[in-house]
């Protein structure tokens, strides 16, 4: 077993992987209190949370100094998206993070867009 290096987050073991199971990080909670999409942007507000939060919360706050999508925060924390959403919702609830829904420049069911994707796929085959 190696000692955790800076930036490793939760303790890691070369053979076993993560020594702290992801759902212990969120105290077993599986549903965030705030609706977050994987592409939702989160950013710190500058407000310091009053409650004692875990190290993953602190890492998330550090990551979110600039706007980041939820999926990218999960990747940096090496946590499942469901767990990351719970942690980020905790930070939104205490006012430390703000969230912005993803912006789509095109309607996802726009017929012209879907036809262009289909034409591209046909050219690849």
Keywords:
two-stranded antiparallel sheet, 125 residues, three-stranded antiparallel β-sheet, 5 strands, 5 helices, single chain
Give the spatial strand order of the biggest sheet: 4-3-5
What portion of the residues fall into strands of 2 or more residues?
Answer: 5-15%
The overall pLDDT average reads: 78
Give the tally of β-strands.
5
How would you spell out the order of helices and strands?
A: EEHEHEHHEH
Q: Evaluate the radius of gyration.
A: 18 Å
Overall spatial form: elongated
Distance between the termini: 48 Å
Total helical segments = 5
Would you give an account of this structure?
The chain has 5 helices and 5 strands. It is of the alpha+beta class and 125 residues long. It has a 3-stranded antiparallel β-sheet. The longest helix has 14 residues. The chain is elongated.
């Amino acid at each position: 077993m190696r000692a955790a290096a800076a930036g490793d987050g939760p303790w890691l073991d070369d053979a076993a992987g993560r020594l702290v199971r992801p759902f212990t990080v969120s105290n077993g909670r599986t549903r965030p209190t705030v609706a977050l999409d994987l592409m939702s942007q989160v950013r710190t507000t500058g407000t310091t949370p009053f409650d004692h939060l875990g190290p993953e919360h602190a890492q998330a706050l550090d990551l979110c100094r600039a706007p980041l999508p939820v999926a990218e925060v999960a990747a940096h924390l090496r946590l499942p998206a469901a767990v990351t959403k719970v942690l980020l919702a905790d930070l939104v609830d205490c006012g430390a993070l703000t969230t912005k829904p993803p912006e789509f420049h095109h309607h996802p069911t726009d017929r012209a867009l879907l036809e262009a994707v289909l034409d591209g796929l046909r050219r690849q085959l």
